[in-house]
Design brief:
The protein has 11 helices and 8 strands. It is an alpha/beta fold and 316 residues long. The chain has an 8-stranded parallel beta sheet with strand order 2-1-3-8-7-4-5-6, with helices on both faces. Helix 7 links the parallel strand 5 (185-188) and strand 6 (207-209). 55% of the residues are buried.
């Protein structure tokens, strides 16, 4: 059995809607409602957040709270790097999706010689930069941080000097070279993108499996094709954003989008992908119980968390 560590990151500083910091506790409440002993099985690691920056007001319109985001990403990066050096398998429970950049940076820093593939199960591509973002919310930027792009070809904003300085520092956490090659990213169910992101997806030939293709080909085929695209990678990280689920299900998340996966599809997909021996970290993000009723999103997310972890344990 893999030596699994639960990593709890209660950060919501990079989201546009408040409440994602409560997602981890919502998952724990869901486990109690389902009389599961999941959270007694693994020792948790708590990563310090910077949610207190929210009370100070935002000074960076093109990258909101980037000063706080920088602190959180450094904390996540150092925690994940330590766990990977110690041969632990991190299962990361996080609030907003920006912290995934810290996870990727930590994985890469622990084994810089290993080529890292990323499976991004999400409604969004998260490839914006301070130069292209329409909202300034940094949970839309983690993959841009990791491939170290500014995407100046699609520039629409003129970020302040302070913003640019923090952005450069963030891109270089864990090393000055890109953490992931863009062609080593696979999207599943991404369906809500803006033109600057579409430009990068086309430029680098990043593969996206839309929901309709997942449904027509079946979960096993999609998993096999995803892993085949990443055949040259030594390690694989899977990031599961609950807004990859259809908006009829994913009410309890900040940015729900129609035409997403069912709970069963997401559950089977993660169960299948995590069987690959190269997978070294799995992450679930963006549960926001303040937007939900009866904690339904967390209950569905917990089912996926528990099933994916069981698949990991059973296959090692």
């Amino acid at each position: 059995m893999r030596d699994i560590k639960l990593v709890e990151v209660r950060s919501e500083i990079a989201a546009g809607t408040r409440g994602a910091s409560l997602g981890i506790d919502a998952l724990k409440i869901a486990s109690l409602d389902k009389t599961s002993d999941f959270f007694t099985q693994f020792e948790p690691v708590h990563v310090q957040d910077a949610n207190n920056f929210l009370f100070r007001g935002n000074k960076f319109p093109n990258a909101k709270y980037i000063d706080g985001v920088y602190h959180v990403l450094k904390n996540v990066y150092s925690s994940i790097e330590s766990l990977r050096l110690d041969k632990k398998f991190p299962i990361v429970l996080a609030g907003d999706h920006s912290t995934a950049a810290g996870t990727i940076m930590g994985i890469k820093a622990a084994h810089p010689e290993k080529r890292l593939g990323v499976i991004w199960i999400d409604a969004h591509a998260d490839l914006h930069t301070p130069y292209t973002t329409p909202s300034g919310n940094m949970h839309g930027m983690p993959l841009a941080m990791c491939i170290q792009t500014d995407n100046l070809e699609c520039q629409v904003n003129d970020p302040s000097e302070d913003t640019v300085q923090f952005w450069e520092k963030i891109k270089n956490i864990g090393g000055e070279s890109p953490k992931v090659k863009p062609e080593d990213i696979v999207f599943i169910s991404v369906r809500d993108t803006e033109e600057p992101e579409d430009h990068l997806i086309k430029k680098y030939g990043i593969k996206n499996f839309p929901t309709a293709e997942v449904r027509s080909k079946g979960i096993r085929t999609i998993a096999a094709e995803t892993l085949e695209i990443l055949k040259s990678c030594d390690q694989i990280y899977i990031s599961f954003d609950v807004d990859s689920l259809d908006s009829s299900i994913s009410v309890g998340t900040g940015t729900p989008v129609p035409d997403g996966l069912t709970v069963e599809e997401a559950l089977q997909l993660n169960e299948e992908l995590i069987k690959d021996k190269r997978v070294c970290c799995w992450e679930i993000v963006e549960v926001n119980p303040t937007l939900d009723s009866e904690n339904l999103m967390a209950e569905n997310a917990f089912d996926i968390l528990e099933a994916t972890t069981k698949s990991l344990v059973d296959n090692f």
